[in-house]
Target: Methylenetetrahydrofolate reductase
Amino acid sequence: MSSDVERRSRRAGGRPISVSFEFFPPKTPEMEATLWSSITRLAPLAPKFVSVTYGAGGSTRERTHSTVERIVKETRLSPAAHLTCVSASKGEVDEVVRGYWDAGVRHIVALRGDPPGGVGQSYEPHSDGYKTSADLVSGIRRIANFEVSVSAYPEKHPESPSFDTDLDILAAKVEAGATRAITQCFFDNDLYFRYLDKARARGIEVPIVPGILPVSNFKQAKNFSEKTGTYMPGWLAARFEGLDNDPETRKLIAAAVAAEQVFDLVDRGVTEFHFYTLNRADLVYAVCHLLGLRPPQEAVAGQNGQAAA
Ligand code: FAD
Model:
């Protein structure tokens, strides 16, 4: 599929741009329909992989699994299943990992997860579980030859006492076998590059792929940012000022803001992006289009045919 796709962006100076998309497992049949229409819309852009999150404390274990399994069975996409260590014994986690391998999944996004008591509480590992995300990465790699991605925090994790601790944790995850880090979303690109410099200086060489959250609901994004310690620049708030009751204009502004962010990253050498889709395709599709990604011609013809029918 990917060989048919024109993946070169004029802004990237001819370097190939690659993207991945993150989804969450749906709770209701309606949400499931929305998710699948988004996957169908984004699939022709030939993402490197699509990932499916794991609910806090493993609360979506079955739904994550069934979503990932359906991606394997019904699409030609490469799924990556998120997995955390929270509230589960090693045996339970290993069983999930083996289940993924047997289902044909070859990529896991390995995370420690939030404290079982909720964000802000101290993290207590399960007495018989993986103690850290690096432990989990080792465990997964021992079970089978999975590709393993992990998290990274350009503005440091809220629990972290210092950038150095954060970088030590990332280095341990890479040493345990992770081959890619995906960042928490950020809105100030300078913070991403500052982190990248620190990671490279620490000897961490794996790709640190920026996680991009196209913001269409500013209030929601602000709440999320407060919890995760993500800096919301004043100019971002200003862009959405006065638009609380105007979702259509908000959407246009959202596409413009996200495009501005990714083009600045491209201009500064970034060629790989992970999009937090929130299970919606339109904004991410528009930004990818601006990046130069195109579906193969037969997919376009199919979509036009559907539209005409
Ligand atoms: P780690 O990277 O292991 O650690 C995070 C920080 O905690 C460290 O940087 C450090 O500051 C501190 N820390 C951890 N261990 C130690 C230690 N031994 N000593 C000292 N300090 C330590 N959550 C979900 O529930 N489900 C998901 O699907 C999910 N997907 C995510 C995807 C991405 C790309 C990102 C960035 C986050 C995701 N999260 C998800 C959120 C994540 O679970 C939380 O941020 C969680 O609090 C930390 O998990 P982690 O694997 O990032 O932790």
